[in-house]
């Protein structure tokens, strides 16, 4: 009876092992496909924002040429649009690293939050939002900056740790 149970157990382990490799291969290929799709979405979004940037630049130069006194709103819109390109570039770089099988830094996500908050700050000051909202954005920027420093410090420590180098 014991031999029969051991034999059945071995057969099940063999079948599971035979299923394991193709399943892992399928999941890895599916993951690559998702990252390829995300990279394409990031490229199209970057192109759209770049065209938006060109439109804002044209509007700014048009105001300068027509000697309109208030060019600050156009300049802030242009700068806000340019800030959107920064995290998209970093996200695309991260997707390339992921497809290559490399690790990405958590600072990428903190940088994206910082860029979004800076853009919100610019827009809120341009639209003359309430002062309390501006203070919240300043506090958020300070918190994101502290988080970024902590993440950078921990990544530096883990990269210099000999145990982590052996695992990689």
Automatic annotation (TrEMBL):
Where found?
A: Cell membrane
Principal location class: membrane
Q: Could you confirm whether the keyword Nucleotidyltransferase appears in this record? A: no
The UniProt keyword set, sorted, is: Cell membrane, Membrane, Transmembrane, Transmembrane helix
- Pfam short name (any one): PsiE
- Residue ranges spanning the membrane: these are 33-54, 74-92, 104-123, 135-153
Record protein name field: Uncharacterized protein
């Amino acid at each position: 009876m014991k031999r029969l149970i051991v034999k059945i157990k071995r057969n099940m382990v063999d079948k599971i092992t035979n299923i394991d490799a193709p399943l892992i291969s399928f999941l890895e290929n599916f993951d690559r496909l998702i990252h390829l799709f995300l990279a394409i979405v990031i490229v199209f979004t970057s192109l759209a924002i770049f065209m938006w940037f060109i439109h804002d630049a044209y509007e700014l130069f048009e105001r300068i040429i027509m000697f309109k006194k208030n060019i600050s709103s156009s300049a802030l819109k242009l700068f806000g649009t340019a800030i959107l390109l920064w995290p998209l570039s970093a996200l695309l770089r991260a997707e390339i690293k992921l497809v290559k099988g490399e690790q990405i830094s958590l600072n990428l996500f903190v940088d994206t939050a910082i860029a979004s908050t800076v853009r919100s700050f610019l827009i809120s000051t341009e639209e003359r939002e309430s002062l309390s909202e501006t203070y919240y954005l300043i506090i958020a920027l300070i918190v994101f900056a502290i988080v970024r420093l902590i993440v950078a410090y921990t990544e530096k420590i883990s990269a210099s740790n000999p145990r982590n180098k052996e695992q990689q």
